[in-house]
Structures
1.
Amino acid sequence: MKPTLEMYLILSAVIFAIGVTGVLTRRNALIIFMSVELMLNAANLTLVAYSRFLPDVSGQIFVFFVMAVAAAEVAVGLAIIVAVFRQKESVDIDKVNLMKW
Amino acid sequence: MELTLFILVALAAVTSALLVVIGKNPVYSVLFLVSAFFCLAILYVMLGAPFVAALQVIVYAGAIMVLFLFVVMLLNLRDAQSWDVTGSMRRWIGFATAGAVLLVALAAVRGVFDPGASLRPEMGNAESIGSALFTRFLLPFEVASILLLTAIIGVVTLLKRDNAKSQAKGGEA
C-alpha cells in the first residue's frame, strides 16, 4: 500500500502546528526563527505532495521560490538578531521591545 | 512497504520537529532541525521530486542551517540555555492557538479529493524543472535573484559597524 495525499497533508499540518507552538511559546529569537523554518517546510511538503498527485510541475517550482525567499529571510533575520544582540546582549524577545509604544 | 517507510520517516520528522521546539540548547535545536529537513528530503524523493530533495539537502540542510549554526555559535548564549518559555498564561494561549490551527488544518485536509494520478518520475528531474523555470517562470526567477541581492546588501548594511562609533567603544564586543 502506498501513502495517500491525505497522509502527506496530515503530516504537513502536524509539522506546521509544531512550528506555531514554537513561535508562540518560546522566547529565544533563534528558536522562534527555526520554528518559522519548520512552518515553511510544512508548506513545501504540501506543495510537493500536490505536485505529485495532480500531477503538475508548478508545485515544485514554487518550492524553489519558497527556498529562495527563506534563504533571504534567514539572512536578514539573523542579521537583525545579531544587531540586536550587540545592543542588548540578549536574544530574549521579551527584552527587545524597541518598537513597543 | 512504501507505507512503512512513510510512517517511519514521518515519525522521525515529527519527533525532530518537536525536539527543535522543546530543546533547551539552541545548538541541539539546529541539529534536530537539520534532521527534520533530511526526513522531508526523503519524503520528497518518495514523492518523485529528486531535484527538490537535492535542493532541500544542499540549500536548507547545508547552507541555511550552517548560517543558523554559525550565528548560534557567534552569540554566546550560555545564560540563555535554560528553558525559556514565555509566562504561564501566554504559554497556554500559545498551545491553545497551535492546537486550534492543527484542528482547522486537519478538518480541511480530511477526506481531501485525491486525483490519484500515477507517479511520473520524469516530472521531478532537473531537466523538467529547469525548462519550466526558464520558460514559464522566467520573470519570477529573475525577481528572486533581485530579492537575494537585496538581502545580501541589507545584511551587509545592517551589520556594518560605524568606524567612529566602534573606535569610541574601544572595539569591544
2.
Amino acid sequence: MPDLTDRALDTAVQRGATFADVRQTRRAEESIAIKSGRVEGVAFGESEGFGVRVLVDGAWGFASSNRLTVAEADRVAAEAVRIARASATALRHRVQLDERPPARGTYRTPVLEDPFDLSVERKVGDLLAADEAMRRVPGIGFTEVRYDAQREWKTYAASDGSLVEQEITHVGAVIEANAVNGDDMQRRSYPDSAQAAGWEWVRGLDLAGNGERVASEAMALLAAPQCPPMRTTVILHPSQLYMQIHESCGHPCELDRVFGTEASYAGTSFLTPDGLGTFRYGSELIDIVADATAPGGLGTFGWDDEGVAAQRVPLIEAGRHVGYLTSRETAPRIGRQSGGAMRADGWNRIPLIRMTNINLLPRPGMSFDDIVADTDDGLLLATNRSWSIDDRRLNFQFATEMGWQVKGGKIGQLYKNPTYTGITYEFWGSCDAVADERSYTLFGTPNCGKGEPGQNGHVGHGASGARFRDVQVGVGKW
Amino acid sequence: MSGRDPDGLELAERVLRHAEALGATQAEVLVGETESRLTRFANSEIHQNVAESNTMVNLRFVDGRRVGCASTNRTDDGALRRLADSAARIARLMPEADEAVHLPGPAPIAYVHGAASAATADATPEFRAAAAREVIAAADAAGVQAYGSFTTDLEHVALANSLGVRAQEARTWSQLLTVAMGSAGEAGYAEAAAVDCTSIDAGAVGREAAEKARSARQPVSVPPGDYPVVLEPYAVVDLLDMLGYLGISGLAVQEGRSFFEPGKVVGSPLVTIVDDAADVAGAPVSFDYEGVPKRRVPLIEAGVCREAVYDAQTAARAGRESTGHGLPAPNPYGPFPLNMVMHAGDASRDELIGGLDRGLLVTRFHYTNPVHPKLVIVTGMTRDGTFLVEHGRVVGPVRNLRFTQSYLDALAGVQAVGRERRLLRGFLGASLVPALRIGAFTFTGATEH
C-alpha cells in the first residue's frame, strides 16, 4: 500500500523528522498442538499494521497502528514525531546513522510445498501419526506434538527513497515424549527446530518414523543413573552445540548489548570493542559467522528491517573476536558499516539488533563419529533441555536431555539429568575438535527473547558438533 | 479515558453472530483493544520510545467435539467474516475429540474497583520522559548511569460466548524499572509497578537503584556453596513465577508433571500464597480470558498445598468449577495464576538481614530456567546487587553467583518473611511479594563481576 507508506513518510518529514522509515507488515500464523493423542489446539491468526520510526533532533520516536488508513498514517507519523521530541528531552548523544544507498528490490523464501495451502486435515493427520508412534511405547506418561508456520509480507520504505518488499516463510515442529515416575520426569524430543522453508522440511523430518525412538529413549532415561559430578571431556552433539552458540556467542556479539542499550533487561556483554581483533574468544578451531544468506536459516532474508542487504559477517576467526552484529546506528561507533542485523517482531515493534544465522563452521578432518572414537574418557551430550547464562554472557549452565559416557572411543552408559557449566571464553578455548560438514545441521530457534516491550526473534544456528576438555558436569544436588 | 471507544463487546457479539450463522454449536469471542506505550533509557538518555494501537479478535469455534481457533487484528466486517470462516473450517477438519468441549456458562461478575486508571490510560510521552529524567538525575547524583524503562498500558478486554457470557473491563498497568550501573560495572536494581502510574515515585526508584549500585562497588569473590540468604522481593517474584509455571495449574496436575498435590507439605509454616485478583494492592481484574469471574484461590497455606487453578476445560475434566484462570484459546499450557499474593510476615528488612550469621543478600535473579521441572530445580544467576552479610550486617558486595536450587526446598527453608511487600511484574501476571530469609540456598558457580 504505497499510499499509506508514502503518506506516513511525508507527514513525518513535514513535522520535522530528519529521517523516517515505515514498515507495513502482514503476518499469517498457523499452529497445531497435540497432547497425548488429543488435538489440543489448531489456530490460524493474522495480524497486520504499520510502524513509523523517526529521527527528530537526533532522537528516536516510534508509533504503530493496525488501522490501515491514510488518516491513521498521518496520526501515527505525528505521534512518532511527538514521541521523538519527548525523547530529545533526555538525550546526551545525537543518533548518527551510517550511509548506505537506498535499498530497492524484492525477496521471497524458497518454498516447495506451501504450508498454508496444504489442508489442515493432512497436517493434523501426519502429526497425529507421530504422536501415536510415541504412545505405542509402553509406560510413556504424556506426549506432545507441536507445529507452527509463519509467513510475513513486509514492505519497507524510508525517507531516503528505499523501498523493499519481502515474503518470508518459516515452519517449525517438535515431537516430545515424557516419562514420569513419582517425582522424576524425563523428556525426550525431536528436533525442536525450525527452518525457512515449506511443509517439505516438516515431511523430511519423518516425525512418525522417529516417534518410537524418542519415546523409548525417554523411558530409558527414567531408568538411567544420575549424571555424576566431575570434570571431564564433553562432546556436544549439534542438537546442543547450537544452543551453546546462541547464548555464548550470538548474544554477546550484539553491538547494542555491548553499548548498554539492553542493560536493564537482558544485560550487557563481555565482548567489548577494545578487544576487537585481538581478544582470544576460543581455540584456533573456532570460526563463527553471522550469515543472513544461509539457505533455510530462520535468520535469512533479503534486507534487514532498516533496509541493509543480507550479508555474511565474520564474528570469530581462528578463535579471535573480529566482528559484531550491527545496525546503522551502532556500526559507525566502531568505524564500520552496518552488517544488516536489525529485525523487528512484527509491525508494532522497532527493529533491534538480532542474530541472523550464527554458524560455527565445520572443519575438514574428523567426522562427528571420528571425534567420539578419538575420545578415551568423557561424556556425549545431546538435545538441549535448559539454558542459563549471566548478564554479561560469561557464566553459563546448560542441561541436556541425553548424556552418554564415552570410554575408549565407544558410547556406553546413559545418564539422566546431565548438566555442564563454565565460563564462555575458557570453554571455547578448551575446544580441541570440531566435526566436519557431514554432521553439519542448521537449527532454527523461533523463541529468542529480547527488548522491551518484548520481541520474539527467529534465528538460526549451524553446528556440526565439537569436543571440549576439562568441563564441569553434573551440577547441583540430586 | 483515552484510546479507542470501548466497543469490544459489540465487536465480540458481531463475530459471535457470524459463528452461529456458520453452525457453531458453541462459540467464544475475546476482544483485546490495547494502547501500549513504553519509554526506554540507557546510558542516562532515552534511546527507544514506542507506542502501539491494536485490536485483537480471537474466536473459538466449537462444532460438537471439534474446536477451531482463529484470530485477527482486522475489524472490518469482511475480515470478521473471514475469521469465522477460518475457525469453522479448522473445526470441521478436526478429528472428533474423546471429550466434550466445555465453554463456561454465565455467572455474575463482581467487578473489582481499581482495575484501571485514567492517568495511566492518558499518560503522555512527556510524562514518561519526565519520569526517566528523574531516574537519570538520581543516577547522576550518585555518579552512575541509568538504564531502564517506563511502561504505561491500557487494555479493554471484552468477552462474549454463545452460552450467554458477557464481560468487559478496562485494565491499565504501569511499571518503572531501572538498573543503575557504575563505571566498573557495579549495579543496583529497583522497580515499581501500579495500576495508576502517578503513584510511582520515579525519583525514589532511581535513588534506590543508584544507592545500591554505589554500595556494590569493588565486589569480592565468595566461593560457591550453601549459604543462608535474604532474597529481596525482586528475587522472590521468580520463585512464585516458577511455581506457577511448573506446577500450580490444573493441567500440570492432570498431566502428572506437577509437584502439586493438595495436602502435600512443600513450604515452611510461614509460607502462604494465594491467587487473589481482587486484592487492590495488586493488579485487580474481574474475570479471566474465558469470561469466568476470578475466584480467590488458596494455593499454599502455611506451607501446605491447597488448590491448583483451573480453567473451564481442566475444571470439567476434574469434575469441578473453573477458578477463573483461563488464558486465551488455544491454550495448550493450561491455566495460570496471574495474581499471586504472598502473605507478609512481621520482619523488617533489617531484621531479615539481622538474622543471618553469615549469608548473602540477593537483590535479584537473572535468566532462570528449570533444570528439573517436577522437582522445581532451577538454575540462574544473581544480578544487580549481591552482598555478603556477617553477624547480621551487610559487610560488602560480592561477585555474582550461579545457583542450582530446588525452589520447593527453598520454600521449605523459609525462616522469616518480610512485612513489606511490593507489586512486581511476573512471568505472565503481577505478584505481590515480600522479602524472605531462607536457611540454605545452593550456589554452584561464580562469575567475574
3.
Amino acid sequence: MTGADHTQSAERDPEFLELCLKVLVAQGAGLRFHVALMALVVATIAAQVYPWWQALAWAGMAVAIRELRAWRVQRLVQVSDEPVQQRIRRVMLWNGALGTANGLAALFMLGLPPEADAVMTLLLLSWAAAGVTTNATILAAFRAYVVPIVGLTGLVWVLHGDLVSVGAGALALLFFATQDKLARRNHATFLESFEMRRVNLDLTRNLETERSRLLQAKDAAEQANRAKSRFLASASHDLRQPMQALAFNSAELQHQPLPIPAQALAQDIAASVDALRTMLDGLLELSQLDAQEREPQQRRVDMRRMLDALVASFRATAAAKSLTLRLDCPAGCAINTDPDLMLRVLTNLTDNALKYTLAGEVAIVVHAASHGLQIQVHDTGIGIDAADQERIFDELVQLANHQRDPRQGYGLGLSIVRRLVPMLGMRLTLDSARGRGSVFTLHVPPDRVLPGLASPPPRSAAPRRLRKGTRVLVVDDDADVLRAYGRIVSRHGGVFDGVQSSQAASARAERGDIDVLVADYRLPGLMDGLALIAAARQAQPDLPAVLCTADRTPELDSVCRERQIALLHKPLDEGQLLDAMAAQRAELVTHGD
Amino acid sequence: MPERGSTVRVLLIDDHELVWSGTRALLDRVLAEEQPSLAVHLVTARSLNDALVQPPAGFDLVLLDYHLPDGVGLQALDAVRSRFENTPVCVLSAERDPRRVRSVVEAGAAGFLPKGYSMPDMEAALRVVLRHKVYLPAEFVLAADATRDSEPDEVPSPDLASFVMSELSPRQRDVLIRAMRGLPTKLIARELGIAEGTVKAHLSMVYRALGVRNRTDALCRLFQAGATSVLQLT
C-alpha cells in the first residue's frame, strides 16, 4: 500500500470522519463570549452610520445563529444515529448559515467611511481566519463557513468600484486562498496523525493477538506434555505389576525341566521380559523428570568415592566385553550437587559408552578446568557423526542399532541425561567423529566445586600404617633391596610379595589380586618398570603403582604424571613410600596403631 | 539360620495377586539354594486389613507393598510394624526415589526392595533379605555413601566386616543386628533382657565405631562395605 492509498481510504473511513466531527465540535465550543464581543464591536462600528437597531439586529442574528449552530452540532455528535456523512452535510449547512450571517456585516461597509471599512474588513477576515483552527478537520465545513465571509467582504469592496477597492477585494480572495492552503495543511497533518495512530493501534492489537495465541499454544503444549507424562507415569506403574509377575514366572520357567526347544523359548521370553522391564524403567524415569516431580537437593558429593563405586559396579559388564574400564579422579575431589541425579547421569553415560564400544577402553576422567571442573567419559567406540550429535539425545534414537537389538537397551539413557544435566546446573558437550570414539564432557561450574583434599592429608602425629592386609607386590632385581622393602611393608601391616624379574611380576599381576605395585624403573629382561606397570594395569585397571628410579629425567616425570603413577627417586625412606601409596589411593594408608 | 522351626514364614502384603505365585516360586528357589533343609511358608494378604488379622507372632519376615488399596506408605508401615513388632518389615515399591527409600528406612523398615529389578538382581536381593532380613538398593547406598562425611580415623570399608566381628562385643553385635532389622529399642531390650538405656548406649558406641550418626547411615555403611554378612544371628 502506498501513502496516498492510506490517505484516501482514511478520508472515507467513518471512524476518521467521526473523529473529525468530534474535533470540530470541541474546537468550536467555549468561544461564546469572544464571538459576542466581536459582534458587539462590529455593531458599534456600524452604529456610527446606520440606525442602532439595524446594527443590533445584525449582531443579535449572528450571535443567535452561532448559539443555534453550536447546540445543533453538539447534538449531532452526541445523540444522532444518522450516518456520519449525513451529519457532516448538516454541519456544512450550519457553517454556511453562520458564515453568511457573519459575512452580512460586510454590507455595512457600503455606507461606512473608508477607514471604518478597513477596520471592518480586518475584523471580518480575522473572523474567517479563526475558521482554520476550528473547522480545518473537515475541509468542506471550513469552506462553507469561510467562503460567505470572505466572498461578501470581497464583493462589497468590488462594488465600491474604484481601483484601490477592487484591489482590496482581490486581496480578500488572496487571503482566502492562503487560509484554505493553511486549512488543507492542518487537515493533512491531522489525517496523518490519525493514520499513524491507527497503524500503531493495529500493530499493538496484532502483537497482543499473536502473543496470546503463542501463550495459548505454549500452555496447550505444556499441558499436553504434562498429561502425557502423568499418563506414562501411571501407565508404567500399572504395567509394572503384571511385568513383575511375568518376570518371576519366566525366570521360574527357565528353572523347570523342559525339553530343549522349550528351553530356548523360555530363554527368549526371559530376554524379552528383561528388555521390556528396562524400557519401562526408562520410560518411568523420563516421565517423572518431564512431570517435574523431582527437585534437586544439593549435598556435598565425594566424586572419587562415587566414581570408584560406579566403576566397580560396571567392572563385570566391561570384563564381559573385554573392555578396559579406567578411572582417573583425584582423591578428595568433591562437588555440591544432588547425589542421586548425578549418579544417574554418570551411570547412563558410562553405560552408553560401554554399550557402543566394541574394543579398547572406556575411561572416566575428572580434572580441573579453567572454569570449574570437567568430568569426561571417553570411549574408543564407534563415534558419532557431527550431523547426528544432537539426535542421539532424543528418545529411542540408537544410531548403530538398526536391528534394534533389545540387549542394547532402547536409547532412553541419553535423553534422561539431557533432562538431568540442566537440572543440576551443569552443561554437557560431546566431542566425537565416526570411527574416532566419543568424549562426553560434563562441565561443573566453579561455584559447585568444593575445596577437597587435593593435597595428601597432612601427616598427623599418630603413626601411619598400611590398611590391614594390603597386598604389596615389589619388583626389584636386588635381593637386599627387596628384603628391605619386605620389612617396611610387614612392619606397617601389609602383606609383602617380592619378585626379582618383570616376567615373574607380570605373572603375579595377571592374577589381579594385589593392592599396590612397587616397581624399580630399571629391570633386567624385556620390560622396564614403566612397561610392567602398564601390563599390570591391563589386568587391574586402577592398580595403584609406585615407580622407583635413580635417574632424574624430566621425561619420566611427565610420563608418570600422565599415567597417574607415583614416582619416587632413590634413595627413598619409608615415609616417602607411604606418602606415594596414599597419593595413589588414600585409603591404603591409615593413621593409628 | 532361621530363628524358629524348619520353615521360613514370610508374610507378603500386596494387592497384585499376579505377583504372588512368582514371588513364592522365587523365594522357594532362592532358599533351596541357600538352605536346602528349609522351606518357605508364604502367607499372602491383598490389603492392610487382611494382613492385620494375621497372628502377630510367628513370621520371620514381612514384605509390604508401598501402595495398598487401604493404606499407603509410611502409614501402612507403621500399622504393620506395630502389629508384627518382632518381625523385620521390608517395603516393596516400583518407585525407588532415594527420598522414598530413606523415609521408609528411617520409619523403621528393615529394607527397601525395588520392584523393577532384573531377575538376577531380584534373586540376589531376596537372598540377602532371607539371610539377613535387611536390604538396600545399591544405587541408594552408593549415592548416600558419596555424601557421607568420612572421618580420617574411621575403619576402612574393606575392613569393616572383620572389625564388626572382632572388635565389637557379642552383646554389641546382638544389639546392632536387631537395630538394623528395624526392631524398636524397647523390644531389643526385652529380647536381650537388658535395660533400654543400655541398648541405646550400645548403639551409640557402635554407630560411632562405624563412623555414622544414625541407623539409616549405619545400614548404608554396612551395605557399602559389603559387610552385611555380620548381620547374621548365630
4.
Amino acid sequence: MIEILVALVILSISTVAILGALTTTLSSTGEHRSLAADDTLLTAMAEQVKNVVELQPSPPAWPTGCGGTGGPLTQWYEDTTTNNTPNIPLPAPLTGTPLTGSSYYPVSLTDPPYVGYVVNLTNVQYPNGSTWTSCPVSATAAGVQKITVDVTSNANITDTFDVVVRYQGDGNA
Amino acid sequence: MPDRRQSGAILVLALIFLLIGSFVVIPLAGLATTNLQATAPFITERQLEYAADGAMDLAIETVRYSATQGYPGGTCGSITTTLNGQTVTVDCTSEAPGTSGAAGEDDESRYVSFVACPGGDTSGCPGQSFLSATADYADFTPSGDVQVGYAVRILSWDVQSANF
C-alpha cells in the first residue's frame, strides 16, 4: 500500500513537472514570437519614416512648426488633415484602418500577422543641446526631428521607439 | 516454485517514469530560458543601433551650421544624447579638406569624421564605436556666396556591431 502511494506521488510530481515545462515553453515561445513581431513592426515603421522624409528623390517639404503632443508638426506625421493619403503611409504591404475620423494615425492594422495591432506616430520633438523639446530653439535646430513610434499588440502591450530624421536639403531647414 | 511476488515493481516503474520525465523537462526548461534570455539582447541591440543613428544625425546637423566646429585645426567637440533609453556620445574630428583622399571630398569644404560610442565610455571611443561616418560640408552657395552649412554630403556611413 505504501509502495503504491509513493509511486503515485512520484508519478504525480513527474506529470506536473512535464506539463509545467510544456506550458512554460509554449508561453515563452509565444511571448518571444510576439516580441519579435513587435520588433519587426517597429523597425519597419522607423525605416518607413526615414524613407519618406529623408530618402525619396522628391521628398515632401520638410515639416515645420512645434511638435509635442498635438502640435502642428506632430499632426503632420499623424496626418490630421488628409487621412486618406497619409504623409507617412504604412510600409508595404501593410494596410490599416484609422481609429479616429480626424487623422490617419493611430491606425489599426488589418494584415496577418499584425491584425489588431495599432501603430501610432506621436510626440515629434527637436533637439535642444543634448535633450529634446517641442519647439525648435533656433532656425538651424529645426533640421533634426525625433519621432516616437508606438506599437500596441493585440495583447494590449505597447512598445515605444524613437527614430530621428535629418534635413537633407540645401540651406536651412 | 520460485517466489515471483511483484512487490516493489510499481516503484521501479515510477522511478523509470521520473527519469524519462527529467529527460523531457530539462531540455524544455532550457529552451524556455534561452527564448527569454535572447529577447532582451535583441531589443537592446535595436535600441542601440537606432540611438547611434539618431545621435549621429544630430551631431552631423549640429556641426553643419556651426561657425566654429569642424574647421581644419579647430575644435570639433562631442555631443551626448539619450534615445530609446540608450545614451550615446558622438565625437567628431576635423580633417583637412582635400587631403583625405575620400571619394567625393571637396577642396572648398569642411571635412569631418564622426564616431558614435556608448555614452560615458572612457575606454577609447574608436575601439568601442558602433557607428562611424564622414561628412563633407559646403559653406558656399552655388553662386559663390558664403553660407555656413549650405549643404552637406555624407561620404561614408559604417555600422559596426552594437552587440558588445
